[in-house]
Amino acid sequence: MAVKGTALEEAIKEIKKCVDKNTIIISVLNGIDSEKVISEYYGREKVIYAVAQGMDAMKFGTSLKYTKEGQLLLGITDFKQKDKLDKLTSFFDQAKINYEVKGDILHSMWAKFMLNVGINQTCMAYNTNYSGALMPGEANDTLIAAMKEIIELSHYEGVDLTETDLKHYIEIIRTLASLGLPSMAQDAKVRRYSEVEMFAGTVISLASKHKLKVPTNEFLYKRIRGIENSY
């Protein structure tokens, strides 16, 4: 499944006639909920966790540009799926798709979620690129603060992100094309509704469950919704 979060429900229904008992489904969507949504339709046993990271693709119309291909991180939380994971990696080996199997895939998913919550929302909210978000100033302060809120939230969700994870993903951003734009900043350029619900929306909902304060993500949510309301 490789669609925008806003199209996930429709895409799930579209593949119905292609899914049988042997089907393996992976999702490369942003966020931390798509596997759960897909599983509700087709069963948890068919879904292998996947994270796409390290790419800097920009797509406008039919034009696609990138300097980094990125890779897929794959993993399971139920050893009963080991056979399906092996079949999937064998297929990827044949197709020469870059992947890595992770022992703690949920940690990887949350770490990527932390990155997206920070860089995607910051670049859209401040109309800037990777380089601009990394320069000292308000945008960079917002980027770091938003990511730190995910670190705190992860502890309540049984996933222990650390400052080391934050530093690692900041370094990943530094390897991307400096003038590149993450997907939400690309959305803003073409006046397309973003995945803010998958990011700040999810953070605010989970924080409410645990009675945590997430002022930076609340700020980003309101600012991005304001941008979208101006379309």
- Helical run tally: 10
The biggest sheet, with number of strands, parallel, antiparallel or mixed sense and barrel status, is: 4 strands, mixed
The coarse overall form would be globular
Oligomer: single chain
Element order, helices and strands?
HEHEEEEHEHHHHHHH
Would you tell me the overall average pLDDT?
95
Report the count of strand segments: 6
Low-confidence spans: pLDDT under 50, at least 5 residues?
A: none
Helix proportion range: 40-55%
Alpha-carbon Rg, integer:
18 Å
Strand numbers in spatial order across the main sheet: 1-2-5-6
Structural class: alpha/beta
> Span from first to last CA?
28 Å
In percent terms, what proportion of residues is strand?
Answer: 5-15%
Q: What's this model, at a glance?
A:
The protein is of the alpha/beta class and 231 residues long. The protein contains ten helices and six strands. The two termini are 28 Å apart.
Describe the structure.
The protein has 231 residues and is of the alpha/beta class. It is 53% helix and 12% strand. The chain has helices spanning 8-14, 34-42, 82-95, 105-125, 130-134, 138-156, 163-175, 183-189, 197-209, 215-229; strands at residues 25-26, 47-55, 58-60, 63-65, 69-75, 99-101. It has a 4-stranded mixed beta sheet. Strand 1, helix 2 and strand 2 (47-55) form a beta-alpha-beta unit. Helix 4 packs across helix 10 (215-229) and helix 9 (197-209) runs antiparallel to helix 10 (215-229). The longest helix has 21 residues, at 105-125. The two termini are 28 Å apart. The model has no long low-confidence stretch (mean pLDDT 95).
